[in-house]
Amino acid sequence: MRPLQFKARTHAYLDKRLTGSSMDYRKVIALFIPILIDQAFIVGLNLVNTAMISSSGVAAVGAVSTVDSLNIFLINVFVAVATGGTVVVAQYKGSGNEGMIAKAAAGTVASVALLSLGIGLLVASLHAPLLQVLFGRASDEVLDHARVYLIGSCASYLGIGVVQAVCGAMRGIGRSRVSLILSLIMNLLYVALNFVFINGLDMGVLGMTIAVNIARYTAALCALVYILRIDTSLRLRLVQLVRVPWDMLKKIMTIGVPFAAEQMFFNGGKMLTQVFIVSMGTYALAANAISGTIALVYQIPAGAMSLTIVTVVGQCIGGRNVGDARKFIKSFIWLASCSFVVMTAILMPLFHPLVSLFHPPADIVDDIFWLTLINAIAQIPLWAISFVLPAGLRAAGDARFTSIASMLSMWLFRIVLGYLLGITFGLGIIGVWLAMNCEWGVRGVLFLKRFRGDKWYAKKLI
Description:
With about 450 residues, the chain is mostly helical. About 85% of the residues lie in helices and about 0% in strands. Helix 3 (about 60-95) runs parallel beside helix 6, helix 3 (about 60-95) packs parallel to helix 7 (about 155-170) and helix 4 (about 100-125) crosses helix 11 (about 245-280). The longest helix has about 40 residues, at about 60-95. The radius of gyration is 22 Å and the shape is globular.
């Protein structure tokens, strides 16, 4: 096929799948590319960080991985509220109500900052019983690493909360490059400092804790400078960021609270499965951490689509264009599934070079391989309908259904089936991951059934 013919067919396909009256494929791609680069950096740098901390031993890897499961659980609560802000901002943008966009952005930053500060203080004060729940049977060495990392992580919550809130607001109005720049500042600084503190000064987990605080608060400062001084279109003042507008907060929380509850129950379930894995020993804990990091690499393009679709569908619904919203959701599902085919074809042959970055004990390499292979195959048909589709439904205002469906599927399928397969039937960590893949399918079927109806776009948010 000639280059001009290929180009013409590509444009025709993009015009058919990613163009509507609300926006064309050029705008969609302009939103997607910065988010894709952002996700690639986040996952890539997470991989590098896990590889660096592995030099401190299996106990350090297990401690950081398990505490990070709690960090993800907690951070996703205020990220959920920031997502509520993204939806509200996007719908105001789609409706053409410029006067309310700044108010929604300020409300997002104020509410997320307050929430993240409160969560950080609460968890730091309760760190001892939380570690007992997470690491009841773990060695003293793992517990010592975990205590340092958990308290240090809590101190950084306000910083990442501010960054996530600003990024969410900027994505809502289509400025995904801002979130990319802030993410690069935070994550590149984090990796650079980790290299200094872990590899250079041999500070181990303590060094990682210092690095994450410096990186997150530096990015938060940059985020505040941007919205207060650089972005003149929003015309925000500092007083707006410390005063919560309750009328706007109600709109944000309409999306944010159900999503936050979903994240709490969902990640709480993941933490419970982590407790199953802790009981299997330090090697199983390390295998789970390494396999989870590799799985994130496969999810980079699809993860970027799940973030992009919030802005796209939010603006479509704000403009009362349900047809476009439905079209974009279908296209994103297919594209996300195709991305997993491509990522699997590229990455599975590179398994051994990739896993060697983590210096795993030889005894767990086979387990990591089978976890990676099973998960790579399952992701192709199941991940998009389980994660991209509900992101689109949530952007339309259908937060309650998506949250309830996710919570029920997690606790009725992943937890129960994970315990049966992993513990009762002795399949170990592979059984826990198989249960996770099955739960994706159950949840995806529920979302597909909802999407075929008309209730998902019936609720008016603005």
